[in-house]
């Protein structure tokens, strides 16, 4: 009998994930025994407490260059950065959900279970250094998110969004898996670092197969980050699903997909950089233009924010492209710029979605542009929050969004992609149109008579925290930049 | 060992993958779309197992056990969503799901 292949070190390394796993199991079992389901809020508080516990655990860990579980998982500063980002987003999502689910008559413990399993999948995605663990983490996240998008059982829109997201998401997972199997055929390994070594050692014989694998990999990841032309699912999924879920997945799922994309392209496929970098640059340009131009004509605010989130993914892609074509410090700077962008985007986007959750009209969720009419006179604080989030999304100083764009464009110029930075700047200008359109509606138009605001303490807290962070990251950026810079050191 | 080699398996799986992808994009019946998805997943599995046999290296076979499990979970979620949708709207063709536009 050999010894167990799992060591105490391994278990300590995944302590935050273990906490989330335990919390998810407890929520599910507790929910099953709590037959009358009288106080669904207790599940929310329990979920929030376990998220905070996991967050504290992540912050107490120190990054290493070791791998755990026989080379399946890493614990580098990169993965810890993303874990913190996911946990913060999940915490915001839980706080924003409480009143929202009550109002929709759908406050069940299963919601929190799926939120926690999605979170768990994301955390594993960020730290996986092998295709096996990466794929399982990705699927855990994806399957939970499909259910969450289709969560409002009696709402045909939510059902339809869930199914559409599922079909395209599952197809992209299958393409991803097929690309992995081709890389396995080409290199004989599923470990990301070993794939890079095999490519350098010249083990790739058939160049057509390599091209096919690269294109499939890029399109599968393009699906996951909702890059154009693989974005068709995103507006439907984000606008049809529950608003609180959209709040969560537009930041966390997208960030998780970027973590995977950066790890695969910058670590494993870096030696093939010449064959994919133009592909990613083209994706970035298309994504920004299509996302921003489609957002201009939207009347449904959730759809507008969905297209805006597509456009923002294009900005992050600029950072990835910049990172691919440089080395050393310039590469670290470009990765740090992408990470900082994702971090800044998290708060401003959560804030904007949380403001949409506030609105209600005629007993229905207010999601259209006209529901924002006269917000400035109805509630000045809500108007002010939305104004700050929109200006930040549009990239206007001194908000966080401005610095995010600034650093990504600087990284692009730094590594010789000046034209890409120019395209990004043009798109930032286009995006200001539709963000300001919302501001105009809020100030100029008269409010509808039956429009109300749904206030609740946790949601207010979410808004205030997002507001503080959006401004703080913009004004007092250096600690966050340093953090992103330290997180740009990837394994190995 | 002449006869069936690794390339034959790769060709078989590429064919299966293409059939599955076309099925997902062309079929209107959701159940058939789910079956086509399953074909795409299993095409990748054939690759993994075949490469694992010819290399030889066990990772591919272990991986395929993981992916079979994941694919089963995937179909469960898909069927659950189809049933939820069918309860609200008695339809099974993807053309009829057209509430979300723009």
How does the SSE layout of this entry go?
The complex is a heterodimer of chains A (492) and B (102).
Chain A: H1 8-13, H2 15-33, H3 41-60, E1 67-68, E2 73-74, H4 77-103, H5 109-127, H6 131-149, H7 156-187, H8 192-200, H9 207-224, H10 233-240, H11 243-268, H12 273-296, H13 301-324, H14 328-358, E3 359-361, E4 364-365, H15 375-378, H16 380-394, H17 400-414, H18 418-444, E5 451-453, H19 457-475, H20 478-487
Antiparallel strand pairs in A: 1-2, 3-4, 3-5
Helix pairs in contact in A: 2-3, 2-5, 3-4, 4-5, 4-11, 4-14, 4-19, 4-20, 5-6, 5-11, 6-7, 6-11, 7-9, 7-10, 8-11, 9-12, 10-11, 10-13, 11-13, 11-14, 12-13, 12-18, 13-14, 13-17, 13-18, 14-16, 14-17, 14-19, 14-20, 16-18, 16-19, 17-18, 17-19
Chain B: H1 6-26, H2 30-54, H3 59-88
Helix pairs in contact in B: 1-2, 2-3
Question: Can you walk me through this structure?
Answer:
The complex is a heterodimer of chains A (492) and B (102). Chain A has one domain. In chain A, 76% of the residues lie in helices and 2% in strands. Chain A has 20 helices and five strands. In chain A, strand 3 and strand 4 form a beta hairpin. The longest helix of chain A has 32 residues, at 156-187. By secondary structure, chain B is mainly alpha-helical. Chain B has a domain at 29-91. Chain B has helices at residues 6-26, 30-54, 59-88. The longest helix of chain B is centred in the C-terminal third of the chain and has 30 residues, at 59-88. The N and C termini of chain B lie far apart (57 Å).
């Amino acid at each position: 009998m050999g010894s167990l292949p799992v060591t105490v070190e391994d278990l300590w390394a995944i302590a935050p994930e273990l906490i989330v796993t335990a919390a998810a199991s407890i929520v599910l079992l507790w929910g099953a025994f709590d037959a009358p389901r009288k106080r669904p809020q207790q599940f929310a508080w329990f979920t929030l407490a376990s998220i905070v516990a996991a967050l504290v655990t992540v912050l107490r860990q120190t990054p290493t260059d070791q791998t755990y579980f026989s080379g399946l998982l890493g614990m580098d500063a990169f993965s810890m950065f993303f874990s913190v980002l996911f946990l913060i987003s999940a915490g915001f999502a839980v706080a924003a959900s409480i009143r929202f689910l009550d109002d929709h008559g759908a406050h069940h413990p299963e919601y929190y279970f799926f939120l926690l399993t999605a979170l768990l999948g994301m955390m594993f995605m960020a730290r996986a250094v092998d295709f096996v663990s990466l794929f399982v983490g990705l699927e855990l996240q994806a399957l939970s998110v499909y259910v969450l998008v289709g969560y409002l059982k009696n709402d045909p829109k939510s059902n339809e969004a869930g199914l559409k997201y599922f079909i395209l998401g599952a197809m992209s997972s299958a393409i991803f898996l097929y690309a992995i199997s081709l890389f396995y055929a080409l290199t004989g390994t599923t470990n990301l670092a070993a794939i890079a070594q095999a490519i350098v050692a010249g083990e790739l014989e058939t160049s057509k197969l390599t091209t096919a694998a690269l294109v499939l990999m890029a399109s599968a990841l393009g699906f996951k980050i909702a890059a154009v032309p693989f974005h068709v699912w995103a507006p439907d999924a984000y606008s049809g699903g529950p608003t609180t879920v959209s709040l969560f997945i537009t930041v966390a799922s997208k960030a998780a997909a970027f973590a995977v994309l950066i790890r695969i392209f910058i670590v494993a496929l870096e030696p093939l950089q010449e064959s994919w970098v133009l592909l990613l640059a083209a994706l970035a340009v298309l994504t920004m233009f299509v996302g921003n131009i489609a957002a201009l004509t939207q009347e449904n605010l959730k759809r507008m924010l969905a297209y805006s989130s597509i456009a923002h993914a294009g900005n992050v892609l600029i950072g990835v492209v910049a990172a691919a074509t440089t080395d050393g410090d310039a590469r670290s700077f470009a990765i740090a710029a992408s990470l900082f962008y994702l971090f800044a985007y998290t708060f401003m986007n959560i804030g904007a979605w949380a403001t949409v959750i506030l609105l209600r009209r005629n007993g229905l969720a207010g999601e259209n542009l006209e529901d924002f009419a006269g917000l400035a006179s109805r509630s000045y604080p809500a108007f002010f929050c939305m104004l700050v989030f929109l200006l930040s999304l549009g990239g206007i100083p001194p908000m966080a969004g401005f610095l995010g764009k600034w650093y990504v464009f600087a990284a692009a110029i730094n590594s010789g992609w000046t034209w890409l930075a120019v395209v990004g700047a043009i798109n930032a200008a286009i995006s200001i149109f539709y963000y300001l359109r919302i501001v105009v509606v809020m100030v100029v138009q008269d409010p509808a008579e039956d429009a109300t605001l749904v206030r609740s303490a946790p949601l207010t807290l979410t808004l205030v925290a997002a507001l503080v962070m959006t401004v703080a990251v913009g004004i007092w950026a250096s600690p966050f930049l340093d953090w992103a810079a330290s997180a740009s050191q990837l394994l190995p | 060992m002449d006869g069936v080699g690794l390339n034959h398996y790769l060709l078989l799986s590429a064919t299966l993958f293409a059939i599955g992808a076309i099925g997902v994009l062309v079929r209107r019946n959701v159940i058939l779309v789910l079956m086509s998805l399953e074909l795409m997943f299993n095409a990748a599995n054939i690759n993994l197992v075949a490469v694992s046999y010819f290399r030889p290296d066990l990772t591919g076979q272990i991986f395929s056990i993981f992916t079979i499990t994941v694919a089963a979970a995937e179909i469960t979620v898909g069927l659950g969503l189809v049933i939820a949708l069918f309860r609200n709207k008695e339809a099974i063709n993807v053309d009829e799901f057209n509430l979300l536009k723009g």
